[in-house]
Amino acid sequence: MKMSSSFGGKSFSENKMEAPKAVSVKIDDTSILIELKDGRNLSVPLSWYPRLSKATPEDRADFRLIGGGIGIHWPRLDEDLSIKGFLLGNPDLTRPIETSSP
Question: Strands 10-11, 6-7: parallel, antiparallel or unpaired by DSSP?
C-alpha cells in the first residue's frame, strides 16, 4: 500500500524549505544580532566565538554576508560562520570545552 502525505496541496517532497538567510547583522560587545529574510531576529552570544570576542570592534565590524546571506565572513579575522549554525546553537567547536571541577 502506497502512502503519501501532503501539505498545502503539495507533497512534502515538493515543499522544499529555503535555507535561512540573513539580511542584516549587528554586533555589540556581548552579542551577534541577526535579522533573517523570513522576519525572525536572532541573538547569539559573542562569547561563543573566541576570534570575534577577542577582536577589536573595528575588526568585528568588517564583515560581509556570503552566499546570498547563508553565512557571514570576517576577512580581517579569517572567520566564516553559517546562519544555520547560529540557528542550531552551535558554538565555535575549536574552543576549549569548559568543564567544572568536582
Answer: antiparallel
